User: Which sequence fits this backbone?
């Protein structure tokens, strides 16, 4: 583009906005050049590690959770595009491959939480975190809502409690993750669950209303045909995200909470050994892609 064309285009751009382009050019003359640290927000990012104890690994523990939240944000960002835009299959495969890379990052890095962090230190500083738990990660739930219909987030036990035509709110009452803190016999909910529902439940329900019939599952089911490559990418995402990642997380929980056969209480107070197992949760985003045998053996990968 020639210089005079550039100026003409700038003028036209601001004319369209009903603005005087010269004002903006003058502003540009005085504006400070951008730099890496402001653009990336490095100082803000590095100021967010507020520890509650002096144990050195607590800061690593916080940063690793923050890193996971950022990766989840990248994933939700990709998934939202698939939900709200109409892409060709090629783009679906590209985006799913990206989702699989992000998930691989979560899986392969999780050992940072397990190896090298002192068992005693962790079990001491974690008591200052009660009743906070990774369970309260909202992005973890948002991602599920964008990916699949609510029926796939109710396990077999939950399905026996559903009425014939459950409303969206009813699905939410029986969604698998309530098992972490809801004693259905006594009707009591843990503080961890109550805090979480108070803060996010309305947001989850309104998102579920907005995306019903548009989730990734819905969109794939509406495709005229799906290639083997797309099928593989979807299955890989379902398996990595809903079995492999939960399993590395569960092994880490076992390492700290059950290493000595003590079966200690988790900060969120769930019956974690049962609750965290992918076989119990039965969370699948694309159940129609799996055979009956695969579904029955769901979560058995170690
Ligand atoms: C030492 C490391 C960790 C241990 C021992 C651990 C333990 C647990 C336990 C026992 C639960 C069940 C809920 C409860 O009763 O608190 C849980 C849930 C959860 N944690 Fe962790 N966790 C660890 C690290 C992480 C990290 C790094 C993340 C990343 C954000 C994370 C995210 C989650 C999520 C999303 C849930 C809910 C899972 C679900 O509903 O399926 N955890 N964790």
Assistant:
């Amino acid at each position: 583009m020639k210089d005079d064309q550039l100026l003409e285009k700038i003028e036209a751009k601001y004319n369209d906005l009903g603005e005087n382009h010269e004002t903006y050019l003058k502003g540009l003359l005085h504006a400070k050049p951008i730099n890496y640290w402001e653009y990336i927000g490095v100082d803000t990012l590095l100021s967010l590690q507020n520890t509650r104890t002096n144990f050195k690994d607590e800061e690593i523990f916080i940063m690793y959770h923050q890193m996971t939240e950022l990766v989840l944000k990248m994933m939700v960002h990709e998934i939202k595009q698939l939900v709200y835009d109409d892409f060709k299959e090629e783009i679906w495969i590209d985006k799913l491959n990206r989702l699989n890379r992000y998930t691989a990052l979560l899986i392969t890095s999780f050992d940072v939480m397990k190896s090298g962090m002192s068992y005693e230190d962790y079990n001491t500083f974690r008591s200052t975190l009660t009743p906070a738990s990774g369970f309260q990660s909202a992005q973890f739930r948002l991602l599920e809502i964008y990916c699949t219909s609510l029926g796939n987030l109710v396990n077999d036990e939950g399905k026996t409690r559903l009425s014939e035509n459950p409303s969206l709110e009813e699905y939410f009452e029986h969604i698998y993750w309530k098992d972490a803190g809801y004693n259905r016999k006594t009707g009591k909910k843990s503080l961890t669950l109550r805090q979480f529902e108070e803060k996010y439940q309305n947001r989850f329900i309104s998102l579920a209303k907005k995306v019903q019939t548009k989730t990734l599952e819905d969109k794939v089911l509406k495709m005229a045909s799906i290639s083997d490559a797309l099928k593989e990418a979807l299955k890989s995402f379902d398996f990595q995200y809903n079995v492999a990642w939960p399993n590395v997380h569960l092994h880490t929980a076992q390492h700290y909470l059950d290493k000595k056969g003590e079966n200690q209480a988790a900060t969120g107070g769930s019956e974690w050994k049962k609750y965290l197992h992918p076989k119990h949760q039965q969370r699948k985003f694309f159940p129609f892609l799996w055979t009956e045998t695969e579904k029955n053996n769901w979560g058995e990968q170690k």
Remarks:
- The two ends are 58 Å apart (CA to CA).
- The longest strand covers residues 182-183.
- The longest helix spans residues 228-257.
